[in-house]
Amino acid sequence: MSGARDSVRLVGLRARGRHGCLPAERELGQEFVVDVTLFLDTAPAAGGDDLAKTVNYGELAVRLAETVEGEPVNLIETLADRLASVCLAYDLVDEVEVSVHKPAAPIPLPFDDVVVTIRRGRA
Fold first, then answer.
1. Is 53 a catalytic residue?
2. pLDDT tens per residue across span 86-99
């Protein structure tokens, strides 16, 4: 890792997925909310005012939503790991923090949200 502490955040991305261990979750699906923080050096982009030297967050949002809407997994930990891989596919990203929210998780008590947050970097 280069140690860049600049960041680009995408917060509150919503997409419908069929993730979970219960059959109803797989059949009906539910909304998931994704937050990502990309750690990268933004100085080259800022210095040249050049989109090609940073991460296009519109394109990233589409790729993340496609992942949420794609192949179901049992655990949101697994989904978070897949989303981190999408972010790290951008060569400029040194490290990423991903939070996956599952506000409609099947919990038989009042609650606001279930969130798994992971942090991944380049090997």
1. no
2. 999 999 999 999 99
